[in-house]
Amino acid sequence: MPRRSLLKLAPTLVVVLGIAVAAVMALLGFFRLRAHADEAVALRSRVLAVALAERLRAADAFDRPAIVDKAARRSSTELLLVEQNGRVVVDGSLGAPSPRDIVELLVEGSGEATTRQGRTRYFAAPLSTPLSNLSLIVFAPAPELPFATRSLLVSVAVLTAILVGGAGLVAFGIARNVNADVSYVRERIVEMALEGAGPSGKSIPVRDTDQVGILTSAFNLLVERFTAAEHAYQHDLQHALEFDRDRAAFLSALSHELRTPLNAILGFTDVLLAEVDGPLSEDAHDNLTVLRKSADHLRALIDDILDLSALESGELKLDTTAVDVFAVAAEVAREARVTAQDRPIDVLLSGSPAVALADARRVRQILGNLVSNAVKFTREGRVEIHVELDGDYVSISVVDTGPGIPPEQRAAIFEEYWQAPASRQSRTGAGLGLAITRRLVRMHGGAIGVESEMGHGSRFTVRLPIRPIEARGPVRFISTAPPPPDMNVETVR
Predict the structure, then answer these.
(1) Is the whole-model pTM more than 0.90?
(2) CA-CA distance, 371 to 449, in Å (whole number)?
(3) Which residues of 253-289 are buried (b: 16+ CB within 10 A; e: fewer)?
(4) What tens digit of pLDDT does each residue of 457-467 get?
């Protein structure tokens, strides 16, 4: 901010604020005058309607048109003598409303209406017996600018000029003194910067005990605290970097130490299940099958934990290529059908080929997590995967007929280590699948959402971009084979 800007800013703010307050006062006064004027016009229309209704009741039917016309000319109003069904008996207006509008006016009884005269206040007075089927409606014109509006504006303008002028002069004097103190503090801060000292190089002397002096003292205290916080931050950052290096080394060793024996277990289990060394008894075959599933489950847990750690540390990088998402979905659906073959679940695939700029391995991981969850929580019915182009994105929907997700749990399902109550009871995972899926989708520049209705299943939707957000190198296309012939595929062209 320029050194003398405060001298202009303070008086300007006072003037602007004063004018704004005056405008509000004038506006409130105008509306108040208008409200009083409308009340007077409404009372006039009511009195005229009641008095003229009594006169019309006592007059002959032949004299009523003349009475209405004469009263309308003398009072500068519009009059209508109407029946209850809206038919006009005597028209003393510049243009009668439709019967439907007249019925609405009779129902309301009084209020505001717009006629050929402009804005009016009306009142409907029924004629008493024996003419109770007739009513007289009086439309009294309501002025747009109420009486004394000009006097109000002149008075507010004069008062505003006097008060704002005086307040502006006072604000200028105060601002001049404050500007001198602020300029002094600014010059000392500039000197601190020129000397090359850190935030704790020098404290600023306090010249006065006013607001600027209090601000200067607070600034000196802030400089001291900032220096102490900076030293503590550097110390903690060094420890965090060391911890991060140790964790990376630990995870690398953990990956090797866990995967090596686990792969051996899986390999030997597959050999035994293949009965290469001889036939197995039924109990032995069942036990080995349980062992194989448990080992697969353990490997999936290890992979999830390592993937989450890589995502948090920033070590996981995407190898973006042009990927046919429909072909990847076909492979995932085929595996899901094998998983769900013992249950009455149909795994369907629909849509059309759609190419996204993504990491093929991670796209398969995203689809695998969503489809495996859908199959896991669906006891019977279907799980449908739909792939289509949606503008600059490839839209992937996974719909199931499971129990649905309660509204209070829909935001928590994407959190780390969160599990649905059914999953916690069966211990089917670590609660990392959807958390990893959301992070992978965001790394691609996409979005993920969920819709669910209790008892009617859930719909997870993923959108992946089809072109890079910023310039990148050449994009290579991954050629994928078409879906196998035994897959239930509905292709929409």
Answers:
(1) no
(2) 15
(3) eeeeebeeeeeebbeebeebeeeeeeeeeeeeeeebe
(4) 899 999 999 87
